[in-house]
Design a protein that fits this description.
This protein is an all-alpha fold. It has two domains: 79 residues, no CATH class; 96 residues. The protein has ten helices and no strands. Helix 7 runs antiparallel to helix 8. The longest helix has 26 residues. It is elongated. The protein starts with a helix and ends with a helix. About 4% of the residues have low confidence. InterPro entries: Osteopetrosis-assoc_TM_1 (IPR019172). Keywords: Membrane, Transmembrane, Transmembrane helix.
Length: 243
């Protein structure tokens, strides 16, 4: 177990940056689990190794073997490595291999279009990177978003909203290069709907005031003079005239 712990510690340390923990250390981690499992099983057996295993695991307050095993388990779970591996943890899943393949193609495209110069090129020379690597980067970004959606739907662990640290770190590196270093951008796929909705909202006040004006416009009233009853004096004059 001590040799397995040293091997796994060295593997984790060598793959800390760039992060390659899950894809590079799943073998040593699986072997360490098997070694610790054999010790733990011996504690529950009535064999001759029972007393030896019990003394290793529970005879003192510090319990180094148990502490080391818990540390490696917590590190592995925090890295969400199970989301990148097959069910038996013998290798990377097909989706992870597909993502890493696109990731390597993106980096190769970046390097090829930098024309062999350093990363501190002037911004004017990054147009070739943005133009020639746009398709590869778009596929990588779409696949990452797809994997995130699948992971949110199927995961029930405390870290279910995250992919494994290898995939997250690879995507972070690529996005920083694409947006910050090369100052590239992806065309928004929702441009047409956004423009349509924005135009509709902008025209709403015009439509409102126009309809309000048409409905509130009053027609000119035509005054009709009423027929007035003739005064009594006129009636008297008429009677005298005919009498």
């Amino acid at each position: 177990f001590a040799e397995g712990s040293a091997a796994l510690t060295g593997c984790l340390g060598r793959r800390a940056r760039p992060v390659r923990l899950c894809q590079g250390c799943h073998g040593p981690y699986r072997r360490l689990l098997a070694q610790y499992g054999s010790i733990a099983r011996a504690v529950g057996n009535s064999s001759e190794s029972h007393n030896c295993a019990k003394s290793i695991l529970t005879s003192d307050r510090l319990q180094i073997v148990v502490t080391l095993s818990e540390f490696f388990n917590e590190t592995w779970e925090a890295a969400n490595c199970a989301n990148c591996l097959k069910n038996n943890s013998e290798g990377l899943s097909n989706s992870t291999e597909e993502f890493l393949d696109l990731f390597n193609k993106s980096l190769t495209c970046f390097e090829h279009n930098l024309q062999g110069q350093g990363i501190d090129l002037s911004p004017n020379n990054y147009t070739e990177v943005c133009k020639n690597c746009n398709e590869t980067y778009t596929k990588l970004n779409d696949l990452y978003n797809h994997l995130q959606r699948l992971n949110r739907q199927g995961g029930e662990s405390a870290h279910s909203a995250h992919l494994c640290i290898d995939v997250e770190d690879a995507m972070n590196i690529t996005r920083k290069l694409w947006s910050r270093t090369f100052n590239c951008s992806l065309p928004c796929s929702d441009t047409v709907p956004v423009i349509a909705v924005s135009s509709f909202i902008l025209f709403l006040p015009i439509v409102f005031y126009l309809s309000s004006f048409l409905h509130s416009k009053q027609k000119k009233r035509i005054l009709i003079l009423p027929k007035r009853i003739q005064s009594n004096a006129n009636l008297v004059n008429i009677q005298e005239k005919y009498s």
